Amino acid sequence: MTAVQRGPVSGSTSRTRMRANGYGLSVRRILLALVATVSLAGMMDFAVVAPAAAQSFTYNPLPPRPRPPKAANDGQMLVQATEVDYDYNNSRVSAVGNVQLFYNGTSVEADRVIYDQKTKRLHAEGNIRMTDADGKITYAEMLDLSDDYRDGFVDSLRVDTEDQTRMAATRADRSSGNYTVFENGVYTACAPCRDDPKKPPLWQVKGARIIHDQQEKMLYFETAQLEFFGVPLAYMPYFSTPDPTVKRKTGFLMPGFTSNTPFGYGVEVPFYWAIAPDMDATFNPRITSRQGVLFQTEFRQRLLDGAYQVRVYGIDQLDRSALAGQPGDRQFRGAVETKGQFALNDKWVWGWDGVLMSDYYFFSDYRLSAYRDPQASFLYLPTEAISQLYLTGVGNRSFFDARTMYFLSFSGNQQQVPVVYPVIDYSNVLNYPIFGGEVSYKTNFVNLTRNDAAFDPITTTANTNGLCTMTSADPLARTPTQCLLRGFPGTYTRLSAEARWRKSYTDPFGEIWTPFAILRADAINSEVSNQPGVSNYLPVGDTQAFRLMPTVGLEYRYPFINVQPWGSTTIEPIAQVIIRPNETYAGRLPNEDAQSMVFDASNLFNVDKFSGYDRVEGGGRANVGVQSTTQFDRGGAVKVLFGQSYQLFGMNSFAVQDSINTGINSGLDKPRSDYVASASYSPNSTYTFSVRSRMDEQTWNVERFEAEGRANFNRWSVSMMYGNYAPQPELGYLTRREGILTSGSLKVAANWVVTGSARWDLEANKINQYVLGAGYVDDCFVLAANYVTSYSYSAGTAPPVLSHAFMFQIGLRTLATSTGSSSSAGIQ
pLDDT (tens digit, 9 = 90+) per residue, 115-144? Predict the structure, then answer.
């Protein structure tokens, strides 16, 4: 046994003494006698800290709680106290006054501690605080333990764990070093009220007995009741739950509720099976009131280099009449979902997503996983699911992605959805200059096939008469003035490669010159099936094409800076001249990835304004504009951009019709483009205002206008966006579109938040979507509810469908989380 010496501690001075049967002995003799007696008796080793007065240093009656020293882990017990007494006759050691014991990572603090050598029991009294190696803290007024802390009982007990859970009891008995029985116990994961610690927590579970099995890591509650703010709400004769240290445990999860017209009401009772540390399974049968039992099973496994999961659904429907005439009118319905991702090394990963269904309405009818938005707490209506296999690599200055994709349509138009096998992207930026400039290159390869043409009506006549459908009575009526060919039937293969060089330098006058050069090449093979009406848009049969687009250009900027006492303003004229030949095969090849075309201030200075590879901008062009940025010394900034684009020579690619009229009505389809402008103002971190607009270059009529404002305060935030868009008949928008989208949240109390959003169609004078939600969140409890209403529109004369969805969620930290949802739809 080695005596541990401690340094001085600031505080008031107090003399410390040791006794042996009432006879005074020197400190050194008592320490030696204590060591010898303890060792001969065979009890645990003690390392006794010499009292403060014996070392001639001051003593603090309320010293800070020290961390157990390293010596506490070598099988010895370290004892520190104001006074240590030894009773030779009764073989008892008493430590009195601010006692601190350390043993194998556990510390005990109390007013008085008595160790009985004969019974090998440790008895502590007064203001007891015991901290074990896991960080669990036990408070009590009386504590009785065996010498290795294995067995014992505690009166007036309170336990605080490291993960902020708490237990209290009038008495606790511990046996076999494993079981702890709390008499009249209370369990909660809520912190006590700061203003009134005696106030009941938000929720707590009381039990006549709470049994903690540390080996199984389970809590068993007998004659339990769940209370909110001290008011009993639920009574349970018996229930069990894993203790807070458990991250995964086999057993039943909280039930859930859902409803939808095809299956009525449904109750789910999930069962979780922790098969092994690296795998688990969840069985989640849904008992429905109309269709019977929907079986759901999910299996997950994590391996050394990744993880995967599989979900299986199946139901033998009892009432097919609820789905008469619909795709779900069948006896058995089911689906399989799977996904996985694995790392080859620190730069490469590969993985997959897969979906297989008995019919394309299955997920919709039963509101299953693919119909739930993982980023929101309400249901949404996707149009398709994706099955894919991919390989992705990310380098310091490079990126590679290859994947093959199969889209599963939820609308039943499976023959009009393409299969992609594969699409490959690679890009790289060289880490060394060439001719003093930066060089980058990228490649793209795609191969896709589609069975049936996908037409989209753009006139009222075509919509009403169904001229654009595959079952149209007059398929030859499908013309570019009535319909768009969204997807061609056949096979399409394209290989694209592009290299870029650019260099910037500033002359003595502060002008910034940036020359650039681009070389793009495309090799294309198109096999278009000769289905009715397709020849009005694309050449049918096989077409091989090679497209080369060399580009050179120069960008010029000349910033003027004005500094004032209130801030600085930078005005920067920008001019960009681009020289290149005409786009070859313009409008005569399929367009699958460049169908979106919005011209605004954000892409004014893009060299190629098409969004994908299938179209490439050609002809000489000049982009000019002026940009102004003002920075205020007290915070805030204003940024304004105004400009226009000019077709200098050659063919204007945006004026050429393709199968979907990309570029038509974009504002770029004329020698002088529409004017584009944007302005943003942020006076501080609270407010943000922005405006984006496109104006006709002759009449200055507003063709496209968006205004947005946001405010974010401590307790509330709000945003509003106004949009006004002119008709684009060649794209199917026959009337002006105008609407307002608003959203906001309000923190009505410390933990209560109310949210809402609405979309108002000003042309139809109708709110076509709104979301209302409320939630309570704190460190131990979650309560949330959302209600969503929206219209979904379909082609033809069918009226819009109004859908409703409601979701409710409640969660008790460390105990359970339960959800419920209900949805319905009706013609409006």
Answer: 888 877 888 888 888 887 777 788 888 888
